[in-house]
From TrEMBL:
Species of origin: Gluconobacter thailandicus NBRC 3257
Subunit and interaction comment: Homodimer.
Binding site for Mg(2+): 19, 47, 103
Function recorded in the entry: Catalyzes a mechanistically unusual reaction, the ATP-dependent insertion of CO2 between the N7 and N8 nitrogen atoms of 7,8-diaminopelargonic acid (DAPA, also called 7,8-diammoniononanoate) to form a ureido ring.
PANTHER family named in the record: DETHIOBIOTIN SYNTHETASE (PTHR43210)
The reaction(s) this protein catalyses: (7R,8S)-7,8-diammoniononanoate + CO2 + ATP = (4R,5S)-dethiobiotin + ADP + phosphate + 3 H(+)
Binding-site residues for ATP, renumbered to this chain: 15-20, 47, 103-106, 187-189, 193
Compartment(s) where it occurs, according to its Swiss-Prot or TrEMBL record: Cytoplasm
Name listed for the protein in its UniProt record: ATP-dependent dethiobiotin synthetase BioD
Cofactor: Mg(2+)
Pfam families assigned: AAA_26 (PF13500)
Amino acid sequence: MSTFRGVFVTGTDTEIGKTLVSAILTKAWNAIYWKPLQTGLADEAGDTPTVRTLAGLTPNRIIAPAYGLKAPLAPLAAANLEGMTINPGRLVLPAVQSPLVVEGAGGLMVPVREDMLMIDLVQQMDLPVVLVARSGLGTINHTLLSLEALRKRGIPVLGVVLSGPENPGNARDIARFGNVRILFSVPQLESINETVVSEMSERVPPFHLCQQQSSQ
């Protein structure tokens, strides 16, 4: 059995709940959070302050982004607008003792550099994936395609997190056809705050058990 240093949180789409799931996992596993590539800083403060607040993190459990880019675009496009080239040497896992929760930007096929997609970064970091997917219509296709892409690269999948109104049929079919476990579900929430994240974190299996049950 492989022992992993943490997980890489990605999604089947953008604006799908990766940051909330990252906060829940960081809280549940007493982990350290890192979003190496942050875009959209012209419009918002970014995901790192959000996770810090939601998970109630002390400064030693936050690693600042390697790149903070202004435009709300894929990292490659946002970096190009600023005349910047993303250096993969800055996207190396930091040496820490606690588990790492690394949050990606967008989905697996989002361009990071001219010669790198987000899935390449996952592979470079040698982390298993927690895949965040919508619970509703269209999710089976998007989720199974993402799982197939990961497995073609030999990237382990820790599990899928479904986000949105409960849909037992979709959850069942993703687990069955994707040969994957549903790690937990995030319902449609009226408000998102530290209390909600704390309650949700109690539903997450311990990190060591998740490692034992990851699939390829």
